[in-house]
Each structure stands twice: as C-alpha cells, then as structure tokens.
Amino acid sequence: MAGTTNAFEMAQRQFDHVADLLKLDPQVREILRWPLREFHFRIPVRMDDGTIKVFQGFRVQHNDARGPNKGGIRFHPSETIDTVRALATWMTWKCAVVDIPLGGGKGGVVVDPATMSTGEKERLVRGWVQQMWKNIGPRKDVPAPDVGTTPQMMGWMMDEFSKLQGDYTPGVITGKPVGGGGSLGRTEATGFGVIYTVREAMKHLGMDSSKCTAALQGFGNVSQYAAIGFVEMLKGKVVCVSCWDREDKVSYTFTKMDGVDPRFLMSITDQYGTIDKAKAKAAGYVIEDGEAWISKEVDVLIPAALEGQVNADTVKKISSKVRIIAEGANGPTTPEADEVIKERGIFMVPDFLCNAGGVTVSYFEGVQNDMNFYWSKEEVLSKLDEKMTVAFQGVLDMALKEKVYMRDAAYMVSIARVVKAMQLRGWI
C-alpha cells in the first residue's frame, strides 16, 4: 500500500529492536512477533447488474491477553495480508499504551469502495460478517471503521451480527452511527487525540502553541479533526493539508501560508477525503505537489494518511524548523527515517500513542453499549483527554528514565503490559 514498504516487516523490526532493549525471553518474543490467529476468506456479492463478484477478505487477531481483540476493517484496493497483520500488531500496542483492556485485531477487504453503489457496499459488509460472525463478538473481537469504511457500514455489520446471533448486540462493532448504538465524540476522537498529545509535547518542549505552525498529510477524518484541534484548541496555524485526488489518481497539497480554514476545506471535501480543487483555488489556496507538505517550514508535522510516507528519501526534505512529528497515521515513518529523526533531535509522538484516541473512544462506546447508558460528548472528550494525557506522560517518563527514543519508550510500556497479562494468565 505504500510502495516498497512492507508494513508487517516494519512492525516486526520495530518490535525486535525493543525486544532486544528489553532482553525479552526468546519464547515470549516468538509469541508476540506473529498474530495468534488469521482468517482469509472469499466474499461473493451480487452486484447491481446481476453479476456475482468475489472479494478477498481478511481478519487478523494478533494478541488477546489483555482482552478481546479490537481494530478496524479497511476497504482498500491495495489491501494485503501483511498490511492487516501490521495494523493488528500495532493495535495490540496501541490498546496497551493507553491502558484499555483490549487486544489487537484488524480486518480488510481488497476493494475500492468508491466504485460501489450503496447497495453493493451493504451486501459486501454483510457478507464479511457472514464469514466471520462466529469469531467476532463483544467478548471475542470487536471490529470498527478504518480507511474506506463508514459508521453506516458498521451499523449494517452490527445488524447482520445481531440477526445471526438472535440477540441485539450493539457491542460487537464500534464506530456505529449515533442513534444506532454509537458514541458521541467518536468522529472527532482520533484527530483530537493527536492534538492532546501534541499539546503535551509542546508543554514538555516549552513551546507556545499559539505561535506554532503545522503541516498535515491527508485530509480524511483524522487529519480534518487534527487540523480543527490545532487551530481551535491550540490556537496555532495550519499552513497546508494534502489529499488524494480520486479523479487524477495523485495527491495534492493545499497550501495557505496565512492559515488554512479546516472547516471550510471540510465543506468542499467528499466522503473519501478528496478536496474540490476549483473551489479551493477560488478561496486562495495554492495547489502543490502531493509531497510538498513534508518540506514546509513549520513547527509540527502531522502525517495522517497511509503507512511508509516518511521514509529514507522523504525524511531528507524535512525542514530544520520542525520540532515535533505527530503520527496521526499508522506506521507513517520507516525505521530508516526514524534514525534520521533521532539524529536531528526531532521530538516524535509515535503512531500507536498519538492516534489512540479512536480506539479509546471505541472502548468507551463498548462500555456504553454494555451499560445501555450513553454519555454526553463533553464527558466522552473529557475522559479521552485524561486517558491520552496520562498515556503520553507514562511514555515520556519511560523515555526520560531509559534515555530512549519516544517510539521505543511507547513499545517498552506496551510490551511490558502485554507480557504481564500473558504471565498472569499462565501463557508463559
């Protein structure tokens, strides 16, 4: 999905590096390097023209020592089992770093959802559940939306599971629409979570957020709310966002040096994160090459698109002004780029800490489903802020104590928690 970068090899390399630092027992390492379970299946779907099309589906359950597996379902034409394995692995560490009682899982279907009608998408997601329903559930594995999937699709999935199960089971899926078992605050959760960690990083570095600038890659849900948070919560300025243009099949960067208006851009963006170029130009935005975001002279870079975007080549373009990289996406930085970032002393907020707001509010959604009692948006976001702040502080304390890079510190915190759960359960 990201050129030559194999996401799962990258996830294993990151893990191996920290396993060495922790002197992890080889047997424990062998359990954690690979998913515990994988499901590969074919989903036949009747298309609107009456033909049957068969789609490849996946679900990977990496580790459930700390609780049911948790993780999104990604619909993408370049989906691979290795991408799903990597994302499931990162979900284990993500749930552990924010200390929620869940393990890591991830799902996928090889498909471009933009080419399907609403009815075709509904039949595909119901088909996914029909293949997996005996191996998911509130106490087994709880899917959620990801790239290419939406709250409405989660509503259909929950409905299909409930029909097959014979019980109304809202807790089987999170990221559902509000009014259909969803949680208020879920839409903003990942992007705002990114900003809560950026705020804490700025406090640590003694930066005044109101004088800071940021460049963002991507303009899907995470990037949209990270941009809003940076402008409205931190009072900073976002100078550009980038996005994938579905018609031109390339990325563009939308730049406005006096500050982009994220809410305006959202109003001219389609459901797949493609910004209307003509309307943006008319509003004074300069449209540049898709990689232009990474070379901007800003204080904060927020890669919030796909994995492998900050790599051995692109890392050289990062301005000397950049002080923080906050990974809104999963796996946006390759190990080669990490070495350069370490040498340059840029403060890294690693992905599975930075973007854990989504899974945290998904956890809150499951709790509310269990209670059959729902919280206000203010309560959800206040609980999220507290969780993210405590998690950030725990990782920072580990980084300072062990004198290690923030990514390594986040892994140390997570791996220690998962290993402890495995010991307490008698697995090792």
From TrEMBL:
Source superkingdom: Bacteria
Database matches in InterPro entries: Aminoacid_DH-like_N_sf (IPR046346), Glu/Leu/Phe/Val/Trp_DH (IPR006095), Glu/Leu/Phe/Val/Trp_DH_C (IPR006096), Glu/Leu/Phe/Val/Trp_DH_dimer (IPR006097), Glu/Leu/Phe/Val_DH_AS (IPR033524), Glu_DH (IPR014362), NAD(P)-bd_dom_sf (IPR036291), NAD_bind_Glu_DH (IPR033922)
One MF annotation (Gene Ontology) recorded for this entry: nucleotide binding
Gene Ontology biological process terms from the UniProt entry: L-glutamate catabolic process
Keyword list, A-Z: NAD, Nucleotide-binding, Oxidoreductase
Active site (UniProt): 106 (proton donor)
Record-marked site positions (Important for catalysis): 146
Chain positions recorded as NAD(+) binding sites: 190, 221
Domain Glutamate/phenylalanine/leucine/valine/L-tryptophan dehydrogenase C-terminal: 183-426
Binding site for substrate: 70, 94, 362
Entry similarity comment: Belongs to the Glu/Leu/Phe/Val dehydrogenases family.
Protein's name according to its UniProt entry: Glutamate dehydrogenase
Taxonomic lineage of the native organism: Bacteria, Bacillati, Chloroflexota, Anaerolineae, Anaerolineales
